[in-house]
Amino acid sequence: xxxxxxxxxxxxxxxxxxxxxxxxxxxxxxxxxxxxxxxxxxxxxxxxxxxxxxxxxxxxxxxxxxxxxxxxxxxxxxxxxxxxxxxxxxxxxxxxxxxxxxxxxxxxxxxxxxxxxxxxxxxxxxxxxxxxxxxxxxxxxxxxxxxxxxxxxxxxxxxxxxxxxxxxxxxxxxxxxxxxxxxxxxxxxxxxxxxxxxxxxxxxxxxxxxxxxxxxxxxxxxxxxxxxxxxxxxxxxxxxxxxxxxxxxxxxxxxxxxxxxxxxxxxxxxxxxxxxxxxxxxxxxxxxxxxxxxxxxxxxxxxxxxxxxxxxxxxxxxxxxxxxxxxxxxxxxxxxxxxxxxxxxxxxxxxxxxxxx
Length: 357
Known about the structure:
The protein has about 350 residues and is mainly α. It contains eleven helices and no strands.
C-alpha cells in the first residue's frame, strides 16, 4: 500500500511539474522552472522510495519483470534528466531547457502508465535470476538505457524544433532534402500516433475480453491515453501553425547546438555503461547460468544491434564531425532499438530471456 502511494505521488508530481514547465517556457519565468524542478525532485524521491520498499519486501532489486523494469527505467530517466539539465548555463534568465524538463516528465508518466498494464505482484526469482550478477548486469544496463532515453527525448525535441523552424542543420549538406523532412515528420508524429493507437487497442481488447475496470485500466483510460492524445494534437497544431510560431520556437526552445551537445553527452555516458552491463556482464552471467558466453539468443542479438547503432553514432560524431538533425535521427533509431531489446524481445520473440515478459 505504501509502495502504491509513493508511485501515485511520483506521477502526480511529474504531471504537475510538466504543467509548470509549460508555463515557465511560455512566460519565460526562471523561478517557475526552479519550482518545477523541485517538484520533479520530490517525485523522483517518491518513486525511488517505492522501488526501495519493493526491493526490501522482495529481497532482490526491482528488475525481475516488466512492471519493475519499466518503473525503474522511468525513475532513472527522471534522475538522469535532472542531472543533464543542471549547470551554470541553466541559471540564465530564459528557462529554455524547460522544453526538455517537461518532456522528461511526460516520458516518465507514460512509462509508469505502460508499467501499470503488467502484473505488479512480487514473485520469487527463478533460478536463472538468483545471482549477484543480476545486480551488476541489469543495473548497469538500465542506467545506460536511462541515458539513452535522455538522448531520445532531446533528439525528438531537436527534430521537432527544426521541423517547426523549417531549418535543417547537418554536416552532410543534404538535410534539406524531401527524404529528410519526411523522416523528421514521421518521427515527430508517427511515434506518438503509433503509441497512442497501441494503447487504445490494448484498452479496447482488455474491455472486450471482459476484464474488470481495474486501477491500471482506469489510469490508462482516464490519464495516459487522454494526455498522449492532447500532446499529439498540440504538436500537430503547432506544426500547422509553424509559419506563425516558428520564431517563438526559435526563441524559447533550446538552441540546436545546445541540444546536440546534450545528446552527445548522454550517449557518451550511457554507451560505456550499457556496453559493460548488457554485453560484458551479460556474457559473464550467461556463462555462469547456461555454460556459454554467447549463444545468439534474441536478447543477446538485439543488445548487440543496440551497441552497433550507438557505436555508429559515436563514430560519425567523433571521426566525421557530424551533428544536427541526421545525428538526432540516428539517436532516435537507437532508442527504438533499445526499447525493442528491453521489452519487445520478451513479448514477441521466444528465447532464454522470455521469463522477463
